[in-house]
Amino acid sequence: MAERYLRQSALAHLGLVGRDQGDRGTAGIAMAERPFPGIVNLRGTHDLLSAAVEPALGFALPAEANSTTGKGKAVTALWLGPDEWWVLGPDGTKLAEQLAKALDGQPAAVTEVGESRCCITVAGPHARELLAKGCPLDLHPSIFQSGRCAQSTLAKAGILIHQVSDEPAYDIYVLRSFAEYLWRWLEDAAQEYGVAVVAT
After folding, report:
1. Spatial distance between the Cα atoms of 21 and 156, rounded to a whole number of angstroms
2. CB 3.0–4.6 Å: which of 35, 67, 92, 133 could bond 9 by disulfide?
3. Do 191 and 156 fall within a single domain?
4. Phi and psi dihedrals of 124, rounded to 5?
């Protein structure tokens, strides 16, 4: 494993930190990379997993399709499928160790996958319109609100989208190999609304 201090975020080469405008100003879209997301993939049956990890997490895994549960903003669980979840936290390695310990001896899989993903945050009054240009999901607020998540595509790239606030604001998770492509597509598609690069 590489030393942590040698890690570079998926979009470090784009110099986004240097482009940080401090705030969105009048731009209709704010974009940011949330570097080094801590993501742990859990596979197994809901009842078994939830009962085992709830004491460790302080909350149950979501049972409803495309929903999330969590404890504040520190740790969140996202429903990916009937037997699959992501648990997001500030430190994926520690979180994976914690969950593996809680599930020791159980028929379940715990895999840290954060290093393979990039998280792009898109927020602002035109964020929903921007995403609708390339995503087939119905993102209307009556259907998809804060706390909802779904696997889909955006500009033909496979993504997991998580609405994190009613602003609206979205965290979009994509494989690192597609990160630059998706960032550039989003930035180009957002030009008509005005786009600002901000720090997370």
Report:
1. 29
2. 35
3. yes
4. 125, 170
> What is the spatial distance between Cα 19 and Cα 34, in angstroms, rounded to a whole number?
14
Range of the domain at 176: 10-35+117-197
The two structure tokens encoding residue 40: 């742990």
Please give the DSSP secondary-structure letter assigned to residue 124.
Answer: S
The pTM assigned to this predicted structure is 0.94
Rounded CA separation 36/61 (Å): 23
Residue 2 lies in a domain: no
Burial class (CB in 10 A: 0-12, 13-18, 19+), 50: buried
What is the 8-class DSSP label of residue 42?
E
Instruction: Compute CA 14 distance to the chain's CA centroid, rounded to the nearest angstrom.
Output: 20
Residue with tokens 């009962």: 51
Does residue 148 lie in a domain region? yes
Cβ contacts of 82 within 8 Å, gap of 6 or more: 46
- Same domain, yes or no, for 49 and 140? no
Cα–Cα distance, 177 to 116 (Å, whole number): 8
The amino acid occupying position 46 is H
Q: pLDDT digits over 72-102, tens only?
A: 778 999 999 999 999 999 999 999 999 999 9
Q: Are residues 29 and 42 in the same domain?
A: no
